[in-house]
């Protein structure tokens, strides 16, 4: 059965959104984060999504949830 890439990407989006929302709410869930990272990596391994598409998805959702890029947030937290 061929992989449905739209469904896969929608699931990635949902799971990444959950990870970031928990973090934003001050309740980071490391198990969910690890599971989600593995799910995304599996999609890359199976050629359902490219590494660049995965990064773009993560970056887009991060911006939606936190209102800043991953890089901006790292810099702010480091200072």
Characterization of this structure:
77% of the residues lie in helices and 0% in strands. It is mostly helical and 79 residues long. Helix 1 (5-24) runs antiparallel to helix 2 (30-45) and helix 1 (5-24) packs parallel to helix 3 (51-66).
If helices are DSSP runs of H or I spanning 4 or more residues, what is the number of helices? 4
Question: Could you list the spans in which at least 5 consecutive residues all have pLDDT below 50?
Answer: none
Fraction of residues in helix: over 70%
Rg, Å, rounded: 13 Å
- What structural class is derived from the secondary structure elements? mainly alpha
- Give the overall average pLDDT: 93
Main beta sheet strand tally, sense and closure: none
| Cα end-to-end separation | 49 Å
What's the overall geometry? Answer: globular
Listing every helix as H and every strand as E from the N terminus to the C terminus, the arrangement reads HHHH
Q: Care to count the β-strands?
A: 0
**Beta-strand content bin:** under 5%
């Amino acid at each position: 059965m061929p992989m449905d890439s739209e469904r896969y990407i929608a699931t990635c989006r949902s799971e990444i959104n959950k990870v970031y929302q928990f973090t934003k709410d001050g309740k980071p869930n490391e198990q969910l984060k690890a599971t989600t990272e593995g799910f995304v990596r599996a999609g890359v391994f199976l050629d359902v999504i490219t590494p660049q598409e995965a990064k773009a998805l993560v970056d887009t959702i991060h911006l939606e949830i936190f209102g800043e890029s991953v890089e901006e947030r790292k810099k702010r937290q480091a200072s």
